[in-house]
Design goal:
The chain has one domain. The chain is built from seven helices and no strands. By secondary structure, it is an all-alpha fold. The model has no long low-confidence stretch (mean pLDDT 89).
């Protein structure tokens, strides 16, 4: 009889570090492009990222079973520093749909569009091209590893109730 993957009560620190480096690189790539356009667009992009992270910590992480502990992204431990514990029963109440993902998609799509415009208007720049390609590579390849092999497969919250897992694991009809 084959056993399932190990469910972590607290994720290994090395895994949290690796996942965060890969994920934060998407933010850094987008910020690089936005700052290349102008200081104002770079600052506005950074504010947008902070708002998204704030909402995640406040609305999801506070009700997750990893609140106060290291989840795959380390957010449970960080959320407990800034916010009071929420109601774990509320974590799985809300049903995710595609429109809930739009703010996260914009993290990549806006810098991608700006990057294309910069390459056209200002000429070829290898760093801008790399900053455009990394988030796409992350979406297509790295997210499969991060979520499929490192994070979700070992997540205790997923065994209880996770909106994202339910959304992404929907059976194709």
């Amino acid at each position: 009889m084959k056993e399932g993957p190990k469910i972590y009560e607290k994720y290994p620190f090395w895994m949290v570090v690796v996942i965060n480096i890969l994920m934060l690189a998407v933010y850094v790539a987008g910020a690089y492009i936005m700052f290349k356009l102008s200081m104002i667009t770079g600052i506005l992009y950074m504010i947008y990222l902070l708002i998204l992270e704030f909402q995640l910590y406040k609305n999801a992480c506070t009700s997750c079973c990893y609140y106060g502990r290291l989840c795959a992204f380390g957010k449970g431990a960080i959320a407990s520093i800034f916010f009071k514990k929420g109601n774990p029963k509320k974590f799985g109440e809300r049903e995710l749909n595609f429109k809930d993902l739009i703010p996260q998609l914009l993290v990549v799509l806006i810098p991608l569009a700006i990057g294309v415009a910069l390459l056209i208007s200002r000429g070829f720049d290898v760093l801008i091209l790399i900053a455009m390609l990394y988030p796409v590579f992350s979406w297509v390849c790295l997210n499969q590893v991060i979520y499929g092999k490192l994070a979700c497969i070992h997540c205790k919250q997923g065994t209880i109730c996770c909106q994202a897992l339910k959304f992404f694991a929907k059976k194709k009809k």
